[in-house]
Write a structure and sequence with these properties.
Layout (H helix, E strand, L loop, with lengths): L1 H26 L1 H35 L5 H18 L3 H11 L4 H18 L9
Amino acid sequence: MRNWMWAALLIIPGVELFGFIWVSERIGAGSTILMIVLTSLIGIAMMQFEGRKVMQDTQREMKNGQVPGRKMLDGLCVFVGGMLLVIPGFVTDIIGFTLLFPLTRPLYRIFLLKWLEKKLKEGKIRIHRRF
C-alpha cells in the first residue's frame, strides 16, 4: 500500500504539470490560470451545496430509524471530490467533479462498497458497537 502511495505522489504532479503545459500552449498561460482558479471556486461552491444535501438526507434517514450507510459514503465522496477540486490541476479537477456530481457518484460508491467489504472480510476494519 505504501509503495502505491509513493508512486501516486510522484506520478500525479507530473501528470498535472504536463496538463498545465499542454493547456497553456493551446489557450495561453493567463487563461489556464484563470481556469484553474474558477474550477477551484466552483468546486468549493459545489462541495458546500452537495455536502449540505448529503447531511440533510443523512439526518432524515436517521430520524426514520434507518442506517445512513450509503449517504455516509456519499458524504465521503463529496469531501474527497471537494478536496481534489481545491488542488490545482486538470486531472484532479475531472476526478473531483465526477465525485461531486450525483449522477456519477454511484460509480465511486460501488467501488468503495467493494473495498469496504473486502477489508471487513480480511479483518482489517472492525466495527465496535456502543450500547
